[in-house]
Amino acid sequence: MPAVRWIRILLSGLFLTFLGGCNPFSEARPMMDEYVERVARVLDSEPELTAIEPPSQIPRRRNRVLTMPELDMGMLDFLSLYGCELQFVVGEKNSVMGKVMQPLNRLRYELRFIEAAQDCLPETEDEDLVEALQEAIDSKRESLPIAIWNATWGVEEVETLFTLAKGYYPVSPEGNPVSDLALDAEELNQTVAALRSGTLEVSLEFAGSVQQRWQAEYRAGQLLNSAALLKSRLDDATALIQRRIGGRPLCLNGKPNNQSEIVQGMFFSVYIEKIQPYMSGVGRARMALIEPLAALAEEQRSVMPPAFEVWYRRHLSQDSERSLWRELDEAMSRHTKAWQTLLEQCGLRPGA
């Protein structure tokens, strides 16, 4: 019997430990589900958790990469024989490794080609060669936006940054999870804007590190998941509050009662202390990372592939008709107004 008693004590301890570890407010999904359930409970209603419309994965690489125009092989062969720096640049492109350049290296090659060809012009006396050089420069400048697009949105690494397989943005992250990614996005924006405006004397040394971070991080995808979660669960809670507003008043004659005190307590202890800080955290990360990435795409709208543009309007744009972020903003606004209206029935309107 003593052995049985000790087993029971041990199992009870393990059960209590298990319960202690089940904090629904430590992760985004259980926190938002729990919030809807608590709103329903204090309003004497049944919780209804609607299906979350999941974000879409970024289009596959074959639908993001643009075809890069090539110079006529005869012209390349002709230029490769000329004795200036361009000879070595063209030779690099014609090598085995040059034929399978990654997008970032291809952009570097295009910039080196333009620079080397321009440097050759003052040294060239042959009119046919001058004409060929100028034609090559013009062609490379015209196709440069394609090379820039492929080196930013056409790389494999961006797929990890936007993967949806890593859950939601953390509830209580240590430090700022998107700080380095945000700085990367800002620097990329400045560089892309300079290149597209014709300022080609910019360094791309930093770009390799950016893509390495994209390969190791997944915060953009987490933010998309969290935006969809917040939008759905806030709408679920808003529906419960609006149903109560349209039915039996929470308070009669504007006088608080026991139930209104319970509702107000849940409002402060859960919505204000748990939900709002998470929404603010997602909002700050959105401003720091999603918005500059949206600008990086918008800057290149002229060459944006159709499949990517559909995804961009939904997942990056802040104000397009089908923008996930616009829908989240609207859901947050509806939810705030619903709480204000409900608590106003009891003279407890927040901020009053």
How would you describe this protein?
- By secondary structure, the chain is an all-alpha fold.
- The protein has two domains: 26-64 and 163-352, no CATH class; 66-152.
- Helices cover 65% and strands 0% of the residues.
- It is elongated.
- The relative contact order is 0.13.
Distance N terminus to C terminus? 63 Å
* Secondary structure tally: strands: 0
Global shape: elongated
Radius of gyration: 29 Å
Instruction: Report the portion of residues in β strands.
Output: under 5%
State the secondary-structure class.
mainly alpha
Unreliable residue stretches: 1-20
Report on the biggest sheet: none
Order of helices and strands: HHHHHHHHHHHHH
Tally of separate helices: 13
Average pLDDT metric: 89
Q: How much helix is in the residues?
A: 55-70%
Total separate domains: 2
Quick rundown:
The chain is mainly alpha-helical and 352 residues long.
Draw up the topology in text:
Layout: H1 2-21, H2 28-42, H3 73-80, H4 86-94, H5 103-120, H6 127-152, H7 157-161, H8 179-196, H9 207-216, H10 219-245, H11 258-298, H12 306-315, H13 324-344
Helix pairs in contact: 2-10, 2-11, 3-4, 4-5, 5-6, 6-8, 8-9, 8-11, 10-11, 10-13
